[in-house]
Design a protein that fits this description.
It is built from 16 helices and no strands. Helix content is about 60%, strand content about 0%. The chain folds into two domains: about 40 residues, no CATH class; about 210 residues, 3'5'-cyclic nucleotide phosphodiesterase, catalytic domain (Catalytic domain of cyclic nucleotide phosphodiesterase 4b2b). This is PDEase domain-containing protein.
Length: about 300
């Protein structure tokens, strides 16, 4: 397959520059009949750092995130039936709410950045195939059914979710529960092809990766990573703890990665995040009518 990519015509922009990265984890494209179909299936957009997720409707987003799974050969490598994968992704998409920022577009954006970091950034060399499968799953599901409110708001307003999860990583634990309910259903269980031991490892890793998106844990995780780099001790693929630290860092970089995209692509995401924060302020106005925050928030929305 790598040789076929190398022989691809110049009509497929950027493929030639990605040959070295593709050597590490070439995509599955056995059904392609010609170079045009090959370029179509690989679709360089899945590796493009300037890719604009916001320019695509939900149907396109489902196709894009399916491409991410296919690019890494995850359905083939882990025996995921096509109908199960598609139902899983459709159900995940339906469970994302229409928040300004934490929506299905964000989930696909994070999955696309994750793929780019794995392939173009060559982070994939650190991980096992199962690690990569779990990481992509986490990227897609890490904010599923997000209410558009942050953990502090949920805790301070005594939201039922805060009570349920003991005020600790409230949203992240909820996203895990929603993901777990999908994996518990045979119709949407993309882990169905895993052995018992692989499934236990996958679920443990999935928990740690999604919990790592809690910004309350940001300093702890980044400090550990920085100390490892400073000590001159590289992360090792042979050590599970090292791989988990690497998985957490890739997830965190992808989750916050839209701000590193080209200005015209990244700036709209900043506006959407600000809008969601402002809506939270307005929702909390009833708790403290004397606060100046609601009037300031309304001014920003004008």
């Amino acid at each position: 397959m790598t040789e076929l990519i190398k022989s691809t015509s110049p009509s497929c922009p950027q493929l030639m520059s990605l040959n070295s990265a593709l050597e590490t984890f070439p995509p599955a494209v056995e059904s392609c009949e010609d170079e045009v179909a090959l370029c179509d299936l690989l679709n360089v957009r899945t590796l493009d750092w300037g890719f604009d997720t916001l320019a695509h409707p939900t149907d396109d987003l489902l196709a894009i995130v399916t491409e991410v799974f296919d690019y890494l050969e995850l359905p083939v490598r882990f025996g995921i039936p096509r109908d199960v994968l598609l139902r899983f992704l459709e159900q995940v998409a339906e469970r994302y709410n229409e928040n300004p920022y934490h929506n299905f577009s964000h989930a696909v954006d994070v999955a696309q950045i994750t793929l780019a970091l794995l392939v173009r950034g060559e982070a994939i060399d650190l991980f096992t195939e199962l690690d990569v499968f779990v990481l992509i799953t986490a990227a897609v599901c890490h904010d599923v059914d997000h209410p558009g409110l942050n953990n502090s708001y949920l805790v301070n307003t005594r939201h039922p979710l805060a009570t349920q999860y003991n005020d600790s990583s409230v949203l992240e634990k909820y996203h895990l529960d929603v993901t777990g309910s999908l994996l518990a259903d045979s119709q949407t269980d993309i882990f169905c092809g895993l052995s018992h031991s692989e499934r236990l490892e996958a679920w443990n890793s999935l928990q740690q990766i999604i919990l790592a998106t809690d910004m309350a844990l940001h300093k702890e995780i980044t400090d550990e990573f920085r100390e490892r780099l400073g000590s001159g001790s590289m992360l090792s693929r042979r050590r599970q703890h090292d791989r988990l630290l690497g998985l957490k860092m890739v997830m965190k970089c992808a989750d916050l990665g839209n701000v590193t995209r080209p200005w015209e692509v990244g700036m709209p995401w900043s506006h959407k995040l600000a809008e969601e924060c402002i809506l939270q302020v307005l929702l909390g106005a009833a708790l403290d009518p004397s606060s100046a925050a609601p009037s300031l928030a309304r001014a920003h929305l004008r």
